[in-house]
Design goal:
single chain, mainly beta, 625 residues
Length: 625
Amino acid sequence: MAEDTQEEVPQLELEAIIGFNGHVPSGLISHPDREHLVYPLGCMVIIQNLNTSKQHFLQGHTNNVSSVAVSKSGRYVASGQVTYMGFKADIMLWDYANRELCAKLPLHKVKVEALAFSPNDLYLVSLGGQDDGCVVIWNVAKREAICGSPASALNVGHAKTLIYSNTSDEMFMTAGNGTLRVWELDLPNRKMWGTECKTGQLKRLVTCIAVAEDDKLFYCGTTTGDILTINVQNKLLNSCGPPKDKFSLGITALVLLKTGDFVIGSGDGKLSLCKGPNHKAVKSVKLQGAVNSITLRGQGHQFFVGTSETHIYRFNYPEFKEELITTCHNEAVNDVVFPFGTSELFATCSKSDIRVWHNPSNKELLRITVPNMICYAIEFMKDGKSIVSAWNDGRIRGFTPETGRLMYTIENAHSMGVTAISTTSDCKRIISGGGEGQVRMWDIGKESQSLVQSMKEHKSTVSCIKVKSNNKECLTASSDGTCIIWDLVRFVRNQMILANTLFRCVCYHPEEFQIISSGTDRKIGYWEVFDGSPIRELEGSLSGSINGMDTSSEGEHFVTGGDDKLIKVWDYNEGEVTHVGIGHSGSITRLCICPFNKCIISVSADGGIIRWKYPFPNEGAFCVK
């Protein structure tokens, strides 16, 4: 019954996503219309306009997208996914013009490794992962499988990649660990034959393939860092190079230009322009992260590069200079906050860095990096002059929001890492919580920072801190199953709330007479501030803990998100879900309603940041949180 009612709830409008899965091989594709990029993030495929940055979302996968392909005419997009052991992994065929699903093609088990369209959009070829090991040809018009075959012999490794011929709809190539095959199709009889190419004593693991324009040769990039050139006619190895100075950490992406030159990406993040039969690098540029995608815009005068560090670069061929056009987190995002009184900016924190984003354009304005550390929580001072951050090395660090300069460090703030942080509205004090359960108040002066008081009640990690607007009271939630309301004048406990859960998040109602809390028991609890008594309890989620919560500035609605990957907007008084947001592919770690109730920003464990349109735009239009 619960599932039926959930389907009737209206969906939140997805405005923008900051994210890109850079680990999908050849996942970044420049569409033949030369105006859009196609790339995966989590369970969806994103189509982004290069000029306006407007995004469209192809949603339908039930798990992470593992491969993407675009047909030569640009009419179709295909995407494959991973799934759980023993289940079938779907291939989705999308109509590009209408941005809608044409067909679902389930056949492969566990994972779809690679996809490719034939030159005239007649057929789609798909390669299953190592648990499947089959290659299948699909008829695009009829949306059905024609025939399939094991992709490699039993005595060699698994096929990892495939590519279609440039001129013939009846020929394609697959390659992988010790296998290199040219396939020919006999479509009237529904048969396909794969011929193993002979490489003599040479044993290689092929990661990427490129085909010459006339289909006479094809080129294979290997984990050894060299390129094998294969003659398609006689299926023999033509050459192997470069003989010296092989590409470090293997060749991860390979593109053949009209000029006969190669653009080669390697595992160490180097992008090289190579000429001649020995593939000698003429120009090279070092990028952040392994180069997993290179895609040509049009004829190759311009191309885009995607890396494992989730950066997208634009290159112009003559200059061969990188221009960073998209950045995003490549680790779990732990927190998201807005500065007081503005919806233009917001900040997020992740492993080793804090980033400040421009909300309307989704562009990264500032990155503050502390290597090899994890930032658990951040907060803007109300005057906007500093960003206060909590780190796993037990330090509290303050940075300037314009330049990212370190203003101060509070050493040994907590013995087991600083896990939660909040500030008072007069910008003079910080309240921090630690992994050992202590709550501490700090005086922040221009020259010095000193401990005011340490409050010891919690027995486990402090997960969330909220300060009352008059700065005389604060609320802390902990994974020991307690929420405590503290008196910040006498530094004693006013009230304690007990529940059989690990509390993850807690919020004051804007009028501060009630609080709402949630955690691993999936229940949303309403509590009286005056005496800590329970008012009511709601079933917040069908599966997984609730990790993030925020109230609107008027207090009429609140939003929650957690391990079920859904954003839910609730009516505060009725206790009912008004809207549901579907889009995250990882557990939602935190979320935030912007100060003027225009949008909701949610962050997740897969590194994605999603902006949702707030469904009640008139609520609190003149009120600042």
